[in-house]
Amino acid sequence: MTRKQFETLDLDNLEQNLQQAAELIAGRIRAIACDPVKQNISFEELAAIIPCDLPDEGHGPEAVIGEVARHIEPYSTRIGHPRFLAWITTSPGPAGTIGDMLCTGLNQAPLSFKGGPAATVLEEIVLGWFAGMFGMPEGWGGTIVSGGTMANLMGLTVARRVHAPQVHARGMQGLERPLVLYVSDQGHMSVTRSAVLLGIGEDNVRAVPSDSACRMIPHELEKAVQQDRRAGRLPFCVVAQAGSVTTGAVDPLPDIAAICRRENMWMHVDAAYGGAVMLADELRPLLAGIELADSVCVDPHKWFFVPLECGITLFRSREQQLETFRAKAAYLGAENPHDLKNTTFILSRANRALKVWFAFRSYGRLRIARIIRRNMELARQLYRLMCDHPEWEPLAPAPLSIVCGRYTPSAAVRGGWTEQQIDDLQLQMIEELERSGTALLTPAAVNGRAGVRVCIANHRTTPEDITLIFNTLTAIGTRIARPDEHETAGE
Amino acid sequence: MTRKQFETLDLDNLEQNLQQAAELIAGRIRAIACDPVKQNISFEELAAIIPCDLPDEGHGPEAVIGEVARHIEPYSTRIGHPRFLAWITTSPGPAGTIGDMLCTGLNQAPLSFKGGPAATVLEEIVLGWFAGMFGMPEGWGGTIVSGGTMANLMGLTVARRVHAPQVHARGMQGLERPLVLYVSDQGHMSVTRSAVLLGIGEDNVRAVPSDSACRMIPHELEKAVQQDRRAGRLPFCVVAQAGSVTTGAVDPLPDIAAICRRENMWMHVDAAYGGAVMLADELRPLLAGIELADSVCVDPHKWFFVPLECGITLFRSREQQLETFRAKAAYLGAENPHDLKNTTFILSRANRALKVWFAFRSYGRLRIARIIRRNMELARQLYRLMCDHPEWEPLAPAPLSIVCGRYTPSAAVRGGWTEQQIDDLQLQMIEELERSGTALLTPAAVNGRAGVRVCIANHRTTPEDITLIFNTLTAIGTRIARPDEHETAGE
Question: Searching chain B, which residue's CA lies closest to the CA of residue A198?
């Protein structure tokens, strides 16, 4: 039997099928700025539309690409839309998308150098770029993971290994003094989730109070550490936020570093979002002190405009990293000092470095930096609009590109609304804006007060988009607060 | 300023760039069966070839695609080559590759239903297919993760939560009795790695002895559990292998299930590789008993021929799963009962379901099942070749598609070689085969004896490939064992 007659999973019309997929992607990206940002459809309605049977006989890729075009693409949120400003999810630059296509096309398995020679080198190159950006000293280490949660987990795992090496063999059960971890009350939920996973427990994560600008108060950190020491616990790690998820706050990194040094604690910086400012020379001082960290989390798939999934952990010491993750097994074959299996928790992994390398080399550092800078200017624009409007108030400073504001319509003041009613209004405004297809935002809670959160990590957002969102939100809020007046006006 | 004049990361020649990438991928796949399987190049040599600067000004995607074609693609191991039979890494079916391209092209963020309505539905559809295949009862849950290590971790995390709920708040330090986990001495390293991560510790993972067919011995499991109970420890979980990484052994699942029920332990089945047989009706009895598991790990990116990365954890109880992973935060917005953020550890995630859905619908269940069946026949072919050859011996039965064998050349017997010398020979044979570009295999250690491991999870491997590998290995081994005779013959 020749290879040709042999049944494989190869496709007769591979070139055409790839071309069809490429056209679908191009069409999607070309129309990404069209409204609506997101279709209004429920899970149940959509489940009735998307074909759900696993057929015995295949339909062939042409037919299935057709299904994607008809039933999947339209119900895929336009995350690259200029007014998608939710979570910290970014519009990917299309060069990153192409890099990611090549990643799956080459399908490397760089757990071992042999499984992806070029992929292994690319990971070292890309990590080198980030280590340089973040001022890591010689002997640094790093790993590319799926995103911020995994990147934070990797940092905390090495922290635990270094500060409680006996845990590896004996488990957390073998510890006499419970480990305690500190993060500001603005910390990302992945920090607590990681602490729970690692067996540290929610009760041993301290939410250190933050100031009015949502930054951790160093004195409060010191107090908490002393308290825990007196109680016989073992303070071992502080997670500093460099771009908090709610407001983009940057903790006082040099102060925290000094406390960590004095108290012999690991300093992990969660710069998943904020780390992108390190790409722009004049913005770097915003994160001054980050070079003192023992580990840093930073996500290319956030404000670097690389498509999902892509996160990075940098380590001050590659030796500590390898000590934590070294993987040995006969079936893995002979060791190569560059094997990526020794650098992280998972074994099989895609060549995620490729899309970062591809995007950065295609666009160049300065072009991406210009977009980051402009996103910050757009945030200042929105912040000023809120300051200048009598019914709006920013809920916190906006040091990076996230703005949280609260709208209190004068009609509500006249009507004697409670704070709770005004809280509810913020959510209604966001939901109505979303239903209109104009923009996708998320809510925020700052110091117990609800607001609208606008996260501008989007290369397509213009000043006009910001004005449109602000005016539309204001109009919606006004109308909700004066339903009768509005109805009258409409008649 | 119009949108057009505004600097974004959009590409002027998007269609052409996508087309160039598609052509590169098509060319790669069309030539995937060409030798060598892998280039012989060192990390240092390759690092000198791949462009490593982060340029201030971008080179544009055309130029960078050219760099990929010249410097990356040639040094990317041909994992789809018919004689790539290393680890458990499979040749992806090209329809899966197209599905993965569409995944990155649509760039969904289905942590929340809003971030990917279709992606959320697709994840439920695909998980439903697997839950059905594995006989999960009503109320099942599941999650799509990056691969087997994460899938095992997710299973063990829920196991810990259910059997030691206090750990969530108080940490493992709060436990009076240390948790103990059981896996056969053939268990995948990700099980111990997960136990270390979870704070259980290596010392609390029992390697239960296996029989001559590499299957866990139920009686030994019972003995170990009793011993731990007597010592005041808390046996909480057994990980059964359904397709062990070294030989493809399937543990006696019904016996293990009975012990777990009797001893009130969680039963997790690691079917990362072996789970694929559930796709073929007549092969399902091989994993009889798997339907009794509390959680199952199974990897679409292994023997289902889907490109990296894609793993799945199935849970008997979605309620227990949600109880473990529920994620709440103001900035995440209003809850939808289908939000994927509540089903797994990470938050941001790609739409991995799409490539599975795309590949399965394109090929149909039966076509993939035929390939799986043929891979098993190829394994039997190789096993018989080893049995029939006086110098070869299989090191273990080959119940699925992995064959481990040891070559003892008669010249070595005549020359009085030690076992260690024969061990070393196996590795030399594999390395020389690899250097020749003919095939990529990995070594194995079975009951302390080294061998050659051939993992046939490849839709392109033919009977002729198996014969070629067997004959080439034999020739290499013979020549190494008789260097003088060979040199004489060659003169």
Answer: B198
| CATH code of the domain occupying B366-490 | 3.90.1150.170
Q: Tell me the chain A residues in contact with residue B120 when contact means C-beta distances shorter than 8 Å.
A: 43
- CATH T-level assignment (fold) for domain A99-365: Aspartate Aminotransferase; domain 2 (3.40.640)
The answer to whether the beta carbons of residues A345 and A154 sit under 8 Å apart is yes
- Alpha carbons B459 and A171: distance in angstroms, whole number: 42
User: Low-confidence residues of chain A, pLDDT below 70?
Assistant: 1-4, 483-491
- Residue in A108, A112, A346 nearest the CB of B147: A346
Residue at B175: amino acid letter? L
Using CA atoms, how far apart are residues B77 and B84, in angstroms rounded to an integer? Answer: 9
**Min distance B488 CA to chain A CA atoms (Å):** 32
ipTM of the complex: 0.96
How far, CA to CA in Å, does B356 sit from each of A72, A309, B116, B117, B343?
Answer: 14, 17, 16, 17, 19
- Say whether A403 sits in a helix, a strand or coil: strand
Q: Are B361 and A434 inside 8 Å of each other by CB?
A: no
Q: What is the CATH number of domain B99-364?
A: 3.40.640.10
CB B302 within 8 A of CB B136: no
Enumerate the residues of chain B whose CB falls inside 8 A of the CB of residue A375: none
* CATH, domain range A368-483: 3.90.1150.170
Task: Decide: B173 and B166 in contact? Cβ < 8 Å.
Answer: no
What are the domain boundaries of chain B? 16-83, 99-364, 366-490
Over residues B435-445, the pLDDT tens digits come to: 999 999 999 99
The whole-angstrom distance between B180's CA and the closest CA on chain A is 10
Q: What is the pLDDT of residues B76-126, one digit of tens each?
A: 999 999 999 999 999 999 999 999 999 999 999 999 999 999 999 999 999
| Residues of chain A neighbouring B368 (CB-CB closer than 8 A) | 9
- The count of other CB atoms within 10 Å of the CB of residue B275 is 27
Collect all residues of chain A within an 8 Å Cβ-Cβ radius of residue B92.
107
Cβ-based neighbour number of residue A245 at 10 Å: 27
As its CATH architecture, domain B16-83 has Up-down Bundle (1.20)
Residue in A75, A97, A444 closest to B105 by CB = A97
